[in-house]
């Protein structure tokens, strides 16, 4: 079935188009790497497709310690930014692992959050960085922590007539993202683990994707890594064990048992990358 493509230049106009439409009538298009599959399969059959490409959201800005990334900036443009790579290596790891370079030329951070996939590689890292989502809508502007924004697969805190304008990361953090897939590219992660070290208590952040209905923080593992304890092998083992308490699922990509083992290994590996970076760039703002 055909549809009309609309590409407004002003965010207010885009929100108005969404607010005045019936549910499902308008589909939002950023890079289209998720949406085009939905159009092709018939899961989505809108009358209009609202393209975000002319909106002023393709930006990347540091404001003191805070990094703000426009929702429609292609992932490849974040990936080639040397400052992002040096100051938030885990974000670079997560982005670099998405699909292929061709895909990253189109895919966006806003689209990844908008799809809210349980197997997203970017949401766990955003959780570990305490990122928040800046939302614009017909009612105005608001900011929501990523942990409260992603509700379930394909379900977010966006209300009718709202769009993601940008994503804010409050500070640069020593960080790492590690994943396991059957194939290294253009495949979905069986497990993804994000670890970051914040400048303030509780210091360590550990987040998990691919195994639960939505990516989640792992507070029990974070508690084992509390800053006043030296990072001994026993502490890392305790964090690794605590991480395996999350609810796991068996699906066509991996069994629960395999995922549980993987999480332990990946948590240990990510902690080592953050705490002993060697040739990895690190730094707080
Ligand atoms: C071959 C292939 C490999 C992939 N590999 C990976 C991978 O390794 N890791 C991974 O995490 N993902 C992967 N993906 C999924 C996908 O590429 C990402 O989720 C991507 O970031 C989506 O961004 P997009 O701009 O293309 O989103 P789009 O397809 O344009 O949009 C996706 C959804 O988000 C909504 N949306 C988009 N932008 C906004 C906005 N600004 N405000 C509100 N809602 C919005 C849209 O309504 C739509 O429902 C892969 C996809 C394919 C096809």
Question: Brief description of this entry?
Answer:
By secondary structure, the protein is of the alpha+beta class. The chain has twelve helices and 14 strands. The site of flavin-adenine dinucleotide has 29 residues, from strand 2, helix 7 and strand 10.
Describe the structure.
The protein has helices spanning 11-19, 35-41, 75-79, 82-87, 89-96, 101-104, 109-115, 122-128, 146-149, 219-224, 233-243, 256-275; strands at 4-6, 26-29, 48-51, 60-63, 66-70, 132-137, 140-145, 150-152, 155-156, 162-169, 175-180, 191-197, 204-209, 216-217. The protein has 285 residues and is of the alpha+beta class. It has 3 domains: 4-51, 2-Layer Sandwich (Uridine Diphospho-n-acetylenolpyruvylglucosamine Reductase, domain 2), CATH 3.30.43; 60-169, Uridine Diphospho-n-acetylenolpyruvylglucosamine Reductase, domain 3, CATH 3.30.465.10; 176-275, CO dehydrogenase flavoprotein, C-terminal domain (Enolase-like, domain 1), CATH 3.30.390. The strands form 4 sheets. A 5-stranded antiparallel beta sheet has the order 4-5-10-6-7. The protein has a 4-stranded antiparallel beta sheet with strand order 11-12-13-14, with helices on both faces. Strand 12 (191-197) and strand 13 form a beta hairpin. Helix 11 runs antiparallel to helix 12. It is globular, with a radius of gyration of 19 Å. The model has no long low-confidence stretch (mean pLDDT 93).
């Amino acid at each position: 079935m055909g549809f009309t493509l609309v590409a407004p230049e002003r965010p207010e106009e885009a929100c108005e188009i969404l607010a005045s439409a019936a549910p499902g009538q308008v589909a939002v298009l950023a890079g289209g790497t998720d949406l085009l599959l939905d159009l092709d399969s018939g899961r989505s059959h809108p009358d209009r497709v609202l393209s975000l490409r002319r909106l002023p959201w393709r930006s990347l800005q540091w404001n003191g310690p805070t990094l703000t990334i426009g929702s429609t900036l292609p992932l490849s443009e974040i990936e080639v930014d040397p400052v992002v790579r040096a100051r938030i290596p885990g974000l670079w790891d997560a982005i670099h692992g998405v699909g292929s370079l061709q895909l990253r030329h189109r895919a966006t951070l806003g689209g990844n959050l908008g799809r809210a996939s349980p197997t997203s590689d970017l949401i766990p890292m955003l959780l570990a960085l305490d990122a928040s989502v800046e939302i614009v809508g017909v009612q105005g502007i608001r900011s929501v922590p990523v942990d409260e924004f992603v509700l379930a697969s394909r379900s977010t805190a966006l209300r009718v007539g709202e769009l993601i304008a940008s994503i804010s990361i409050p500070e640069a953090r020593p960080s790492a993202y590690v994943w396991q897939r059957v194939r290294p590219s253009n495949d979905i992660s069986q497990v993804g683990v994000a670890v970051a070290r914040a400048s303030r208590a509780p210091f360590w952040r550990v987040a998990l994707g691919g195994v639960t209905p939505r990516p989640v923080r792992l507070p029990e593992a974070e508690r084992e890594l509390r800053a006043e304890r030296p990072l001994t092998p026993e502490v890392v083992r305790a964090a690794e064990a605590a991480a395996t308490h999350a609810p796991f699922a068996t699906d066509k990509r991996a069994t629960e048992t395999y995922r549980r083992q993987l999480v332990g290994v990946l948590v240990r590996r990510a902690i080592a990358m953050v705490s002993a970076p060697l040739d990895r760039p690190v730094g707080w703002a």
